[in-house]
Write a structure and sequence with these properties.
This protein is of the alpha+beta class and 97 residues long. It is built from 1 helix and 4 strands; from the N terminus they run E-E-E-E-H. The longest helix has 33 residues, at 64-96.
Amino acid sequence: MIKEEKKIQEVTVKQKYCDDCGVKINRTMACSVAKCEICGKDLCDNCVAHEDKSYDDYRIVFCSKCWTIGEKYRNEIKKLETEIDRLTNEYVEKCRS
């Protein structure tokens, strides 16, 4: 004999929200995820303050707070990278002569 039973099953759905503005984030692909590189906040597209070019599957984004704080440091890092390049070139030239 076959009896039919009805079962009610509870389903839990997790949803991601922007940590800055609270809007619901609907993303289905990993390559569309926006998470701040510094503090790790989940961000909607409206709250991304800066996005670096990426040739990988993941976006490189920054929230407005981290981008603003980093301005002083990014400028100093750029100066130091230029100095490293200059010293490396000088070193290579001396070795080749």
